[in-house]
């Protein structure tokens, strides 16, 4: 017998609130996306996905109302940083509107193609943007990895039920 979703509760019309509620139940890895502009920009992303291995493509979503979008909309390269469980504060800083994301508390340097690279992350990539696809009030950015390192230590940071957390064994 095949299990079906619990239909005892009447389905709700798919509003933005319902959509957010459903995706709060979806655990996602946490990344920070950065780009160089007059000043560096960056934001926390849980929408990062591996698209293809040949060529090595990734994608992520960004809201067009994001303070990072004006720079990301024209950036040729982006930095992709996979955060470790020890970086909840960093994830929160890059998620908070109006935060000084590249202030004194953020350890970073300029990497390949001038992309801002964060220190002490689990892994990072520098990617060349190949496409920006309109998707509602967001854009889906597709980018090809050109450099990177998986050598950081630690377990991954996860976002679930509206908060940052760690994996449990």
TrEMBL record:
The identity of this protein, by name, is Flavin reductase family protein
Stretches assigned to the Flavin reductase like domain: 23-166
Top-rank taxon of the source lineage equals: Bacteria
Keyword Oxidoreductase found: yes
* Keywords of this entry: Oxidoreductase
Instruction: Specify whether Chloroplast is a keyword of the entry.
Output: no
Q: Name one GO molecular function term.
A: oxidoreductase activity
EC number(s) given by UniProt: 1.-.-.-
Q: What is the lineage of its organism?
A: Bacteria, Bacillati, Actinomycetota, Actinomycetes, Kitasatosporales
> Which Gene3D superfamilies does its entry note?
Electron Transport, Fmn-binding Protein, Chain A
The enzyme class is oxidoreductase
